[in-house]
Amino acid sequence: MDLTLQPVRVRTGSEDERGLLVFADGVLVAVLVCLSDAHGEDAGLWFLEAGFGSLASPQPGKFADLDAAEAWIAGRLAPPRLTPRHPPP
Fold this sequence. Notes:
This protein is α+β, with helices and mostly antiparallel strands. The protein has one domain (3-77). 13% of the residues lie in helices and 34% in strands. It has 1 helix and 5 strands. A 5-stranded antiparallel beta sheet has the order 1-2-3-4-5. β2 and β3 form a beta hairpin.
């Protein structure tokens, strides 16, 4: 899976305007926003402003950096692994 990040300004109703559109194989899957200084200790963290499909979340996450956000997104988009019911002898 190829994740692509595209910078964008996002109108959130707060000072948080620096955002990224996240595409997986050319399909929009999420919008990330960098939290502003108005968020105190959370300033500079990346926030899942909107997630689509398997990234939709009633409690959006905060990420220390873009690597952490990308890892979470890739993990949620990865197909489920099938595990055998009984391990081979």
